[in-house]
Amino acid sequence: MPPIDYTTASNVFSYGKVYNPTLDETAVMNQIVTAVSRRIDKDCVQQFSLTTYTNVILTPRIDVEGTLILYLPSPTITTLTSVTLRTGNIPLTQPINYLGTGAQYDIINQSYGSKVLIYGFTMTPYRNSILRAYVSWAGGWANLNEVPSDFEMAARIYAWYAYKQREAPFDRTAIPEMGIITLPGSTPAAVTQVLNRYTWYYR
Questions:
Q1: pLDDT of 76-95, one tens digit each?
Q2: What are the tens digits of pLDDT across the range 106-144?
Q3: CA distances (Å), origin 86, targets 72, 118, 126, 149, 157
Q4: Angstrom distances, CA of residue 99 to CA of 12, 95, 105, 143, 153
Q5: Considering only CA atoms, which of 165, 117, 150, 164 is closest in space to residue 48?
Q6: Largest Cα–Cα distance in the chain?
Q7: CA 124 to chain CA mean position, Å
Q8: Contact predicate 164/16, CB 8 Å
Q9: What is the rounded CA–CA span in Å between residue 148 and residue 78?
Q10: Which residues, at least 6 apart from 151, have a Cβ–Cβ distance to it below 8 Å?
């Protein structure tokens, strides 16, 4: 399925107190909302829309108890499809049967990337090895109702900022129809503060 937008044109216009936008203004805003949504994916180093991932190469960790830990760049995991390990430069890979007898796994969904813990395997001997995991899964938000409110508001502000930049580009003071305004030349701080909480990295 195609990626979703993280807000709507009507929400952005409501934030900017534009209550009767024209059809042309709405068309432009729809394009901006989609562009901003994809830019947020890039800024946060993960795609938030529901997506199917196949054999993504990740670096796993193994704790002192031999638990295999995977960090996935997705805010939610709906289905863990397969996990395969490669040790060092050995060409053969080892499938991890996390649904096998005695094996269990936990999924911890987090805004800054999900965490999967797989139990029931003797992984301690591999702790000092160079490991690569090939992981397939489905994860992300399926629709706008699943988008957290702070994230949606950040998308609104980001889209409104991009929309108003047409009137005052390049850090210059402009005189649009409603008066003098000065716009920043970088992402608004209110947006950055929210997106920092959703940026993928190991924790």
A1: 999 999 999 999 888 889 89
A2: 999 999 999 999 998 888 888 888 999 999 999 999 999
A3: 17, 16, 11, 40, 43
A4: 45, 11, 8, 29, 39
A5: 150
A6: 70
A7: 31
A8: yes
A9: 17
A10: 6, 48, 111, 194, 198
